[in-house]
Amino acid sequence: MIVVYIVASEMAEAEKLGKMLLENRMAACVNILPAMKSIYRWNNQLETADEVVMLVKTQAGQYAAIEKCILENHSYETPAIFSFPVQHCSPEFEAWLNNQIN
Q1: Residue 95 included in any domain
Q2: Which residues contact 50 (CB under 8 A, 6 or more apart)?
């Protein structure tokens, strides 16, 4: 199990992307956290943006397909997308997750 971290421009985009991942059984659950403030450097200038965080719960083997889907459907030229490994998980939750994807 991994958690994929993705940043979207707004709630509507995050919901659209999350539904794509779920409908294609690439993820078991997508949590969307609204109202994040990002400060970053882009084209040698400091930028500030209101963004939305997506936390995608999935299997490690789904990462490449998720990354491809996000890159093809995201509004950003270079969206933030990366994963965190899950070290511990209840057997019941992991079984549920696997059942949702397979």
Answers
A1: no
A2: 10, 35, 36, 37, 38
* Amino acid identity at 45: Q
Q: What is the mean pLDDT of residues 73-78?
A: 95
Q: Across the beta sheet with 2-8, what order do the strands follow? A: 29-42, 45-58, 2-8, 81-85
Q: What is the CATH number of the domain that holds 40?
A: 3.30.70.120
Q: H-helix or E-strand containing 91?
A: helix 91-101
Q: Which residues contact 79 (CB under 8 A, 6 or more apart)?
A: 6, 7, 8, 70, 71
28 DSSP 8-state letter? S
The boundaries of the domain holding residue 65 are 2-89
Q: What's the pLDDT score for residue 93?
A: 96
pLDDT attached to residue 102: 73
pLDDT 10s digits, 17-33: 999 999 999 999 999 99
